[in-house]
Structures are given as structure tokens and as C-alpha cells.
Amino acid sequence: MASYKVSYVVIGMDHPGGIANLDHKPFVGEQVRLSDLTFEILEVFEIMPARGGFHYYHATCHPIPTDISSAGTHQESS
Amino acid sequence: MDLKDFLRRVELFDSLTEAELEKVAAICQERSFHRGDLLTKQETPGEDLFIVTQGFVEVFLEAPQRVVVNLGAGQIVGEMALVDQGLSSATVRAVEEPTITQVIRFAQLEQLFQQDASIGFKIIRNIAADLSFKLRHRNLSER
Q1: b vs e for B13-46, b when ≥16 Cβ sit within 10 Å of the residue's Cβ?
Q2: What 3-state DSSP class applies to B117?
Q3: Which candidate in A21, A34, A40, B3 could, as Cys together with B74 as Cys, close a disulfide (CB 3.0–4.6 Å)?
Q4: Is domain B3-134 classified as CATH 3.90.550.60?
């Protein structure tokens, strides 16, 4: 069973990004939640060769417009 | 998902055998945090390795104050203090409600390494890979 470790970098706002595991390869257009905001993936590429059952990816994201207006306020996680 | 199934999906335990995973699972303890609770405090001694199972934590530097990264499911916290035996390099706090972790005491992990060098080699190698990934993430953040 493959696991995907993903480095998320956010553009378009001041946000530290994040790292999290997924059970699928990230893809452009996918919506992801990092702490209390949701982002859309713009770019995906592999950053380290796969090792064992682990794959290593980078995703560049931008905030989804509805979240920009609420940045700084907490939203419950789904 | 039971604990062994979860641990199998954590990079830290990549390539451990079933018997080795059993030994690791035996020293894990689940610990839950409320939003805002601290897992580690910068410049204080670290005693625990945390594995995030649910939720997110943020890694926060005190001076100048800034969040450097958010860590979600499958990520580890406390690995630097485990490796270099120094003080915690950052403050880490839960940012989702609840945030659930598996915790391993450094002393128990080091005892396991002494008893089973194969486990020690694999976990330390996987920590090196994790640190490399975090460095690559940081480099990409500064593009």
C-alpha cells in the first residue's frame, strides 16, 4: 500500500504551508486543507525518489477565494 | 485502523518487519491535544517523539515569532532533540480540535535501539530522510 508524503507551499498569501501524508498522489485542481484553511493545488512534482512504499511530492497551492475573505478566523475541520 | 496498520503507513517505520513494528507499537502511547496545547516548547529539554495521527500542529519559532510549517497526519515532532540531544528547536502546538498523536519516550526508544540494532538503524535512517524532506520543503518555500 503506497503512502504519499507531500510538501505544500502556499503562494498568494502569507502562510507557512505544510507537510502531510496522503493515501493518493496529489493532483492539480485538488482541494487540500492545511490547519484551518483550504487551498487548491496548482502544481505537483516529485521531489525525492520513492523509497519502500513511500512517494515524495511537492505541491504548490493557492488559497480558495472563499477562504481569503475569512483568513484569520477559524473554520471547523471537515 | 489499528495502531500497527497506522505505524506501517508512517515513513519513520518504513521497512520495519512485522515483529519490529510490534516492538515499536508496544512503547507507543496515544495522547490527544486541544487546539492551542503545546507538544514541545522551544529551548526546553525534549523527552518525547510525537507522531501526528489526526489533525495538524504548527511549528513556531519564538524570535522572531513566526510559524514555519504545519505538520499533519504521519509527520513526526521531536526528532531533532532525539538525534542531537539538544533542547527543543521550536515550539509546537496543536491547531486542530482534536489533534491526536502517538508518543514514544526518547528513553524507551533508545532502549529499544540498544536491544535491537536493526530497528535503530532503520528508524535513524528514516529520521534522516524526514529531515531531508523538511529541508527540501523549506528550500521550496523560499523559491
Answers
A1: bbbbeeebbeebeeebeeeebebebebbbbeeeb
A2: helix
A3: A21
A4: no
Ranges B4-8, B26-30, B32-36, B38-42: which has the least confidence: B4-8
Structure confidence by residue, pLDDT tens digits, A31-66: 998 877 899 999 999 999 999 889 999 999 999 876
> β-pairing, B57-62 with B91-94?
antiparallel
Q: Which residues of B touch A (CB under 8 A)?
A: 8-11, 14-15, 55-56, 58-59, 66-75, 95-97, 129, 132-134, 136-137, 140-141, 143
Integer Cα distance of A13 and B60 in angstroms: 18
Helix (H, G, I), strand (E, B) or coil at B64: coil
Average pLDDT over all residues of chain A: 85
Structural domains counted in chain A: 1
